[in-house]
Amino acid sequence: MSNGIRNNWSLAEIKDIYYSPLLELVFNAASLHRKFNDTAEVQVCTLLSIKTGGCSEDCAYCPQAARYSTGVDVQPLMQKDEVLSYAQKAKDAGSTRFCMGAAWREVRDNRDFDRVLDMVKGVNEMGMEVCCTLGMLTEDQAQKLADAGLYAYNHNLDTSKEHYNEIITTRTYDDRLQTLDNVRKTGMTVCCGGIIGLGETHTDRIQMLHTLATMPEHPESVPINALVPIAGTPLEHNMKVDIWDMVRMIATARILMPKTMVRLSAGRTDMSIAEQALCFMAGANSIFAGDKLLTTPNPSFDEDNAMFQLLGLKPRTAFKAEKQYLTEMAEA
Ligand code: SAM
Ligand code: DTB
Ligand code: SF4
């Protein structure tokens, strides 16, 4: 707590922050952001779906769940060389983190996993922070990924424990927490956040933030996704997420977890530059770049470059936290 990072937030405290007057909330978040981070910097991550569609889970928002007809073509696991050439393109376009996603319920110990381990090694050797999101992991599988050079593992809570069963029934919240624990034990960084617009209440959002902010170590990155409603899924007619809800969520996350990378994730194609600027002001300091997320559209590199120029933002360099740590150690 001496470094200003707290893991003992109460629900009542979070509620007070979340419901504070909006401009006051943004000002407080922006002030803390300035204190803890370089506010001109935004981490640019690129996503690639390395195995698309045909997933056995029933996540009500997801275009890749086999049980909904969403028009997503099922694709087998990509070849390593093809993935590495995407990673190189992303690096050339200014991304410093490359995240590979698979529409799997969980990792299985088979040749596909061995191929993913090879991809992780390859991207790591290119000097990018490499991240995967592959579903549930055992501790042993997490260790194999860490040994291959995986920098971060993404596994979202998506919503509150209370609302979880309304969205997913094929696995439990505790399964999710167990995977996060397995990742943490290996020393890899944790990327864990959620989605707003699933039909949850404000209390659900507060509860999810409470779960994240009271973990023994805060996730190093917290993606905040706005639901991208997908035709054919149970949530296809959900209302568009209000930008003020997005700003409130980001600002609250920033205050609770001041050093965490808060990622303005899915939903940017529906936001103006002015709306995204408000999110950066409220403490967002990471985005997914490239014209596709996993299966849905995202602003192009060119559009984002123009936005960065306009707002005076610059991409964060790779492995910055580690470099800072080494400098501090050398100076101590
Ligand atoms: N299958 C793995 C899993 O579920 O952990 C990894 C891939 S999964 C697509 C990664 C995350 O994408 C989900 O946890 C969810 O937060 C997000 N996501 C999926 N569909 C979305 C949508 N339609 N709108 C917003 N976020 C979405
Ligand atoms: C995260 O929180 N959002 C990203 C990433 N982690 C894997 C995924 C968003 C997916 C949006 C729907 C799609 O493109 O399929
Ligand atoms: Fe499968 Fe992940 Fe989509 Fe759920 S979110 S259906 S686990 S790909």
Question: Could you write a compact summary of the structure shown?
Answer:
The chain has 332 residues and is an alpha/beta fold.
Overall residue-averaged pLDDT value: 95
Note the overall shape.
globular
- Provide the number of structural domains: 1
CATH architecture: Alpha-Beta Barrel
- What is the percent of helical residues? 40-55%
Tally of individual helices: 12
User: What share of residues are in beta strands?
Assistant: 5-15%
List unreliable stretches of 5+ residues: none
Largest sheet, described in full?
A: 10 strands, parallel
Order of helices and strands: HHEHEHEHEHHEEHEHEHEHEH
Cα(first) to Cα(last) distance is 20 Å
Radius of gyration: 19 Å
CATH T-level fold name: TIM Barrel
In terms of quaternary structure, the protein is single chain
Structural class comes to alpha/beta
Can you identify the CATH class?
Alpha Beta
- Name the hetero compounds present: S-adenosylmethionine, 6-(5-methyl-2-OXO-imidazolidin-4-yl)-hexanoic acid, iron/sulfur cluster
**CATH homology-level superfamily:** Aldolase class I
Q: How many beta strands in the DSSP annotation?
A: 10
Describe the structure.
It is a single chain. The model has no long low-confidence stretch (mean pLDDT 95). The protein has a single domain (11-331), classed as Aldolase class I (TIM Barrel), CATH 3.20.20. Helix 1 crosses helix 8, helix 2 crosses helix 9 (243-256) and helix 5 (139-148) packs across helix 7 (173-185). The chain starts with 10 loop residues before the first helix and ends with a helix. The chain is 42% helix and 14% strand. It contains twelve helices and ten strands. It is of the alpha/beta class and 332 residues long. Strands 1, 2, 3, 4, 5, 6, 7, 8, 9 and 10 form a ten-stranded parallel sheet that branches. 47% of the residues are buried. The radius of gyration is 19 Å and the shape is globular. Iron/sulfur cluster binds at residues 55, 57, 59, 62, 64-65, 103, 105, 135.
